[in-house]
Amino acid sequence: MSFYNRLAGLKERSIHSKQQEYTDSHILRILGKPRLGEEDLLALLSPAAGRHLEAMAQKAQQVTRSQFGHAVQLFTPMYVSDFCVNHCEYCSFSSIYDFPRRKLDMREVELEAAAIASTGMRHVLLLTGESRQASPVSYLKACTEVLRGHFASVGIEVNPLSVSEYMELAQAGVDSLTLFQEVYDQETYRRLHIKGPKRNYRSRLDAPERGCAAGFRSVNIGALLGLYDWREEAFMAAMHADYLQNKYPGCEISLSIPRFRPFLGDYSPESEVTDSALVQTVLAYRLFLPRAGITLSSREPASLRDRLVHLGITKMSAGVSTAVGGHTAADGTPQFEISDGRSVEEIREMLYRNGLQPVFKDWDILV
To answer: How many Å apart are CA 78 and CA 88, to the nearest integer?
Structure first.
């Protein structure tokens, strides 16, 4: 049994039609409930709920403070390779684009890690393009060995791996996994992933569960909002997180809420995700999953991030570059354009001004 089986049942429902049925009274009644279920999540993502964002925000803030206090964990991504064998319509690293590909050697990994650590950052997310040849598990382990000398926590965002491979990395010092399904609608997924191993929808969908089974402390999932109807995608991602949280209570499950951003190609998303839609998604996630972490990346503009930190966000990126070696060199090709280019120090000061506590270290790797 995997979430794939659960997903099949969810897709049999007419989610769009159901969401049109909710009224203001439904939303107000839900906001008075101590625990929410599947139907409540659907309602909170409905058009009717969009008229009650202020009430949702007030409760979401209360829930967040009761579960997480005023802490916001900071991290930054570190890109070490942009070689990729997949052809995906929405990504600059897609194999169809002709640009100088780059992969850091261990000396360069050391320099990049030292540059990031000098900002005070202690949580790092190791990223690669999806190529087993360019970035095999052995390479990821070697990178992790270097990173462990600089950081309290090392996460990975790489191509899907097997349970045994994830266990190898966990034993090497990796403690968290980030892996986005990108889009849960299977027809859209098939259309956007033209070539390569990433076309295997089921393998990618089950990969976060393999990470849980391998013993990672934290697993972070999400949909790239904009590739399909945002209400349905947000619903599926939250149900996926709920499934993992219930099946693996010892693993911290988090959700990211990335929106599509400009990249090297000319693909345009079919679903507009407004700021209001993003806010509604954050609030629905927090109320449905009180214990889940919610990550807000530098894809979003500074002004919006500054407002959302009060409404359920528990993790933020800072000092971000989406190019390989981007913290020590300026000539790489970014995977996508970021909106918030503020430094670690600037994000830290913003959080202090908002009465929040930036957390640089809350976990030590013990291997």
So the answer is: 21
Q: Residues 12-44, buried b or exposed e (16+ Cβ, 10 A)?
A: eeebeeebeebeeebbeebbeeeebeeebbbbb
Residues 53 and 279: beta-carbon distance below 8 Å: yes
Say how many C-beta atoms besides its own lie within 10 A of residue 232's C-beta: 21
- Residue 359 CA to its chain's centroid (Å): 18
Residues 6 or more apart whose CB falls under 8 angstroms from that of 46 comprise: 19, 20, 22, 27, 231
- Domain extent, residue 20, equals 3-359
Q: Which residues pair with 126 in a beta bridge?
A: 78, 156
Q: Is residue 55 part of a domain?
A: yes
Q: 3-class SS at 178? A: strand
> What is residue 336's predicted lDDT score, i.e. its pLDDT?
80
Tell me 258's DSSP state: P
Dihedral angle sign, alpha carbons of residues 271, 181, 298, 235: positive
CATH number at residue 20: 3.20.20.70
One-letter amino acid at 22 equals: Y
Number of domains in the chain: 1
Rounded Cα distance, 9 and 24, in Å: 27
- The residue assigned the tokens 């107000």 is 28
Q: Which residue has the tokens 């070697």?
A: 142
Question: Residue 364 domain-assigned?
Answer: no
d(CA 257, CA 220): 11
Contact 222, 121 (CB under 8 A): no
CA–CA gap between residue 255 and residue 363 (Å, rounded): 19
Q: What pLDDT digit, counting tens, does each position of 249-301 carry?
A: 999 999 999 998 765 667 778 788 999 999 999 999 999 999 999 999 999 99
- Establish if 59 belongs to a structural domain: yes
What's the rounded mean pLDDT across residues 198-223?
97
- CA Rg, the chain, in Å? 20
Distance in angstroms (rounded) separating the CA atoms of residues 142 and 146:
7
Contact 242, 290 (CB under 8 A): no
User: Would 365 be classed as within a structural domain?
Assistant: no
Which position has the token pair 């939250």?
A: 238
User: What is the CB neighbour count within 10 angstroms for residue 336?
Assistant: 17
pTM above 0.85, yes or no: yes
Encoded tokens for 162: 């097997």
